[in-house]
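Postdoc handover notes: sequence design on the structure in folder B. Input tokens:
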């Protein structure tokens, strides 16, 4: 199937379609569209709401025991307003946090298609509901709330400070907060009368807008937390500055009594901060933010009876100031703003109005919570009515079920009960009834959003299953066919009955059009449901596939490489162990230490499978293999991110790699004249690998001494990096097949493998020089501190700026204890150990003695070589073992990268990861070439041979992809969601990537000019 162009195109198209399906099934926007606005039945409580957000402020740093650093906020908490905590959700980032505050919904998971940088769809917010909006703040937050339909409206004034003030290296980071309050002060001095206007819109077309919203975004806390950490003295001084700026704001209102009496104030944060200056995950320090509200219709402080109690059952603080505190969800503040201003609640808000934060009579509270409940019920009704129009499976009544907890009859009954309770002035019971309606409606919204996820997921899993059966049937039919049948196999695979195929395609096309026209469903979602049927039809209409599936495949397995006949139990045990090995690789993506158990199982494999090592000194090689796998098993247990660096270990790794390569090459070139290595490109790479380690060592030492880095070091680093790049590969990766390693035409296996390994090791090692930049960017999120190699070649101006940031990062590394990635600790040693194990694996799989295998000469032209005969028509243990081993080695470099920030896709951590993966792919390609050639009776590996292992790899990839498809996450931090997607992509791409890597590896293993093959006569074991 995959030896034909049609088969390859079909496979690639199918995998692309299955990859894209997750964005139609898991990552769709939950926002409801088509909602209309009703006139609020309750008038506005205030004319103005001043909403102040201290971006990234830690609750425990503000609510200290005596609040000695914030006298203004302390006086508000003690005498004027209410305090408590706002609980946000992951991801705890600025954009989703502010969207929750002003639009009332949490992160739209469809934003993953925008790289998490923007919301996937337009959304409604209190900015659009208010009659007048005045906002000042950061350029990454304030502009996103500009209502699209109010651009140019004089009633909307949104201003942000310039990007140049987003300088994490600035001495005075609090200047951004001062800028915001300065602008607001200028506005109040010149145009405060605008806030006295009580104009409102009575038109539904205008959205019944009312009231004035003032938004002050203070971002110094976020910047200071990233650079100085929340426990620093600088962070405390920043909090003092926030308090001083709030005092300035209050003074502006105190000068106008009329304005002050018609204003409510809300002070909170969009997210918190960890002790090490990061956010995004779900710890309490990140998800809990401070909340202080005061002003008109806001309850004043109330004492609690038991002063010995902590702040609440949550125990967030060991004290409570003797006052009652409140816990609200972050999205609940959106309907609170709407209730204060008397505006309609934003369309997609899922917040529940916190009535405890309103000082109004009970009847008014019932009216407000009723509007809140009716708003969410409206979203539920619109979503439920849209279900038949957006899914085709509604024709299958087995899957067509309404939300049983809140049917239409139950809604009618609950609303009638609440109305009766209100009429009887049982306001507390009515409020609880409306709250029950809100909570059940939110459950219903989530239910209908994921309504057909199970059915669609079932279709995708079934497609993978049928696809795997097709791969299996194709593989077995090829091995069972006689040589004369091989040429016509591909054609019979796809066109065994042209008329039947045409009729089938016509029926499928007609079915797609009918389903799409009846249910108004997208073509892709319709195709996902028909895909298992299409694949099953292709499988069952092919006579060869049917023959394979109709009989047992047990006789296709043999023990050709051993003298011992394979029995059923032994085969079952082998398959069981291979499955266990695969599970270790699968769960190793999520729990890295499990990869250690997989490495231990690999080390014990020669004692389980006697066909793995069949050489004369078997026992010694078994012990060597076990020792190498034991060392490899250590690395998954090491921490991915640590707090120290070890340039000495980098240097030692480079010395070990260079020394081992030199000794190995010297032994294989004993017949060469003395000192010939000085002109050989392979030995030049040995020197380059050693020099790269010395450069990393020197740079790290100079940085530790705060000394300038000489220009010569930069020049040598770039020369080495460019010299190891191949112009045929995109410079974007800079880890491709090195030109220096491919200039010689007379290459043996040993010299080619060592050369390619060194050529990948040099860029892998050199990336450690600038690796701290990735850590600085992750910590301070500076927009221009890109660490990709492509950005480093744009000009001396950028290089100068990066150098400036580099030195700043190194200084901060010592002062702020910014954690160093593992690139300067043990990755060099990992590369050396992984390569050693891979070399041993390729040698053992060949079945040749050491000098025979590494002495094989690579051929540049396979046209003169005799074709593979049909004598070997069985699938032996090696065919099963090699794909499983490849996946296990392939998984080793990945988890260390998935622990890092997935937004840095082009950072050095991902580029470094490619280097060992390319080495493993090259070794895997060599194994296939050697085995196929030896089966044909040749000693020179030949090209363009079909590998059974590639088909088995695609079956394994399907197995892994189904697992990771079920583990996809649409809730959690950006890192959690991104990791689940990356795991699925990695697993799904293993099959096709192995084909591409195998082809690419063959190219790298092929000399550029033809040579006469040197036929050896190795003894096959």
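Designed sequence:
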């Amino acid at each position: 199937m995959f030896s034909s162009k049609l088969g390859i195109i079909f496979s690639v198209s199918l995998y692309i379609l299955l990859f894209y399906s997750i964005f139609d099934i898991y990552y769709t926007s939950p926002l409801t569209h088509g909602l209309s606005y009703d006139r609020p039945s309750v008038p506005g409580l205030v004319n103005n709401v001043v909403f102040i957000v201290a971006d990234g402020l830690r609750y425990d740093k503000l609510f200290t025991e005596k609040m000695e650093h914030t006298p203004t906020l302390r006086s508000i908490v003690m005498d004027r307003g209410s305090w408590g905590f706002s609980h946000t959700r992951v991801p705890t980032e600025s954009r989703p946090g502010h969207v929750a505050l002003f639009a009332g919904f949490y992160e739209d998971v469809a934003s993953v298609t925008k790289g998490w940088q923007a919301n996937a769809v337009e959304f409604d917010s209190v900015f659009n509901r208010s009659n007048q909006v005045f906002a000042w703040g950061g350029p990454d937050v304030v502009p996103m709330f500009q209502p699209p339909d109010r651009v140019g409206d004089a009633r909307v004034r949104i201003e942000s400070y310039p990007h140049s003030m987003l300088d994490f290296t600035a001495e005075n980071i609090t200047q951004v907060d001062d800028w915001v309050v300065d602008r607001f002060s200028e506005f109040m001095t010149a145009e405060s009368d605008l806030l006295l206007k009580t104009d409102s819109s009575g038109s539904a077309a205008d959205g019944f807008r009312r009231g004035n919203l003032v938004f002050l975004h203070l971002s110094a806390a976020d910047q200071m937390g990233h650079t100085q950490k929340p426990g620093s003295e600088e962070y405390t001084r920043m909090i003092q500055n926030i308090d001083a700026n709030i005092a300035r704001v209050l003074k502006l209102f105190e000068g106008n009594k009329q304005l002050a009496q018609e204003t409510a104030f809300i002070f909170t944060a969009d997210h918190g901060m960890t002790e090490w200056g990061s956010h995004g995950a779900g710890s309490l320090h990140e998800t809990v933010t401070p909340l202080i509200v005061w002003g008109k219709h806001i309850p004043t402080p109330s004492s609690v009876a038991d002063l010995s109690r902590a702040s609440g059952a949550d125990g967030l603080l060991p004290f409570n100031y003797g006052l009652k505190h409140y816990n609200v969800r972050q999205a609940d503040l959106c309907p609170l703003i709407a209730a204060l201003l008397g505006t309609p609640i934003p369309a997609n808000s899922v917040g529940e109005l916190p009535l405890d934060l309103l000082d109004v009579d009970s009847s008014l509270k019932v009216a407000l919570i009723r509007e809140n409940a009716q708003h969410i019920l409206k979203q539920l009704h619109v979503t439920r009515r849209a279900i038949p129009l957006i899914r085709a499976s509604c024709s299958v009544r087995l899957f067509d079920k309404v939300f049983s907890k809140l049917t239409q009859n139950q809604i009618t009954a609950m609303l009638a009960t609440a109305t009766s309770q209100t009429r009887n002035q049982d306001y507390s019971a009515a409020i609880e009834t409306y709250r029950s309606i809100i909570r059940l409606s939110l459950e219903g919204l989530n239910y209908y959003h994921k309504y057909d996820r199970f059915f669609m997921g079932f279709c995708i899993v079934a497609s993978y299953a049928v696809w795997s059966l097709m791969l299996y049937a194709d593989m077995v039919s090829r091995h069972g066919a006689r040589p004369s049948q091989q040429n016509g196999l591909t054609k019979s695979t796809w066109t065994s009955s042209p008329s039947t195929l045409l009729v089938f395609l016509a029926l499928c096309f007609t079915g797609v059009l009918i389903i799409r026209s009846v249910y108004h469903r997208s073509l892709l979602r319709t195709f996902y449901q028909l895909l298992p049927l299409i694949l099953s039809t292709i499988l069952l209409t092919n006579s060869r596939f049917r023959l394979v599936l109709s009989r047992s495949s047990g006789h296709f397995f043999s023990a050709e490489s051993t003298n011992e006949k394979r029995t059923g139990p032994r085969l079952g045990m082998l398959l069981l162990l291979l499955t266990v090995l695969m599970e270790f690789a699968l769960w190793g993506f999520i729990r890295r230490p499990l990869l250690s158990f997989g490495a231990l199982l690999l080390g014990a494999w020669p004692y389980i499978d006697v066909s793995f090592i069949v050489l004369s000194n078997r026992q010694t090689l078994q012990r060597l293999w076990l020792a190498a796998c034991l060392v490899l098993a250590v690395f998954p247990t090491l921490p991915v991110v640590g707090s120290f660096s070890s340039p000495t270990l980098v240097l030692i790794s480079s010395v070990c790699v260079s020394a081992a390569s030199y000794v190995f090459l010297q032994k294989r070139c004993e017949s060469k004249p003395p000192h010939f290595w000085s002109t050989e490109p392979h030995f030049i790479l040995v020197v380059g690998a050693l020099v790269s380690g010395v450069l990393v060592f020197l740079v790290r030492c100079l940085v530790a001494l705060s000394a300038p880095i000489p220009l010569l070091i930069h020049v040598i680093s770039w020369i080495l990096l460019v010299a190891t790049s191949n112009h045929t590969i995109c410079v974007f990766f800079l880890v491709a097949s090195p030109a220096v390693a491919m200039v010689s035409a007379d290459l043996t296996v040993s010299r080619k493998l060592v050369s390619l390994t060194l050529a990948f090791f040099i860029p892998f090692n050199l990336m450690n020089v600038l690796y701290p930049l990735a850590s600085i960017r992750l910590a301070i999120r500076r927009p221009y501190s890109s660490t990709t190699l492509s950005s480093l070649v744009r000009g001396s101006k950028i290089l100068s700026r990066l150098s400036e940031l580099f030195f700043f990062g190194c200084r901060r590394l010592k002062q702020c204890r910014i954690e160093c990635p593992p690139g300067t600790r043990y990755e060099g040693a990992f590369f050396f150990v992984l390569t050693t194990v891979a070399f041993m694996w390729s040698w053992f799989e060949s079945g040749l003695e050491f000098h025979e295998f590494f002495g094989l000469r690579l051929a540049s032209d396979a046209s003169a070589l005799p074709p593979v005969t049909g004598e070997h028509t069985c699938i032996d243990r090696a065919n099963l073992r090699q794909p499983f081993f490849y996946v296990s080695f392939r998984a080793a470099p990945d988890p260390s990268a998935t622990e890092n920030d997935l937004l840095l896709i082009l950072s050095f951590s991902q580029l470094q990861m490619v280097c060992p993966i390319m080495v493993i792919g090259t070794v895997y390609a060599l194994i296939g070439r050697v085995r196929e050639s030896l089966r044909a009776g040749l000693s020179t590996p030949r090209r363009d041979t079909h590998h059974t292992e590639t088909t088995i790899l695609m079956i394994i990839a399907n197995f892994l992809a189904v697992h990771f498809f079920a583990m996809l996450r649409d809730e959690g931090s950006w890192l959690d969601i991104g990791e689940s997607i990356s795991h699925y992509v990695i697993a799904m791409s293993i099959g096709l990537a192995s084909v591409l890597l195998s082809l690419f590896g063959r190219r790298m293993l092929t000399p550029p000019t033809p040579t006469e093959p040197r036929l050896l006569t190795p003894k096959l074991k």
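Context for whoever picks this up: The chain has 36 helices and eight strands. Don't rerun without checking with the PI first.
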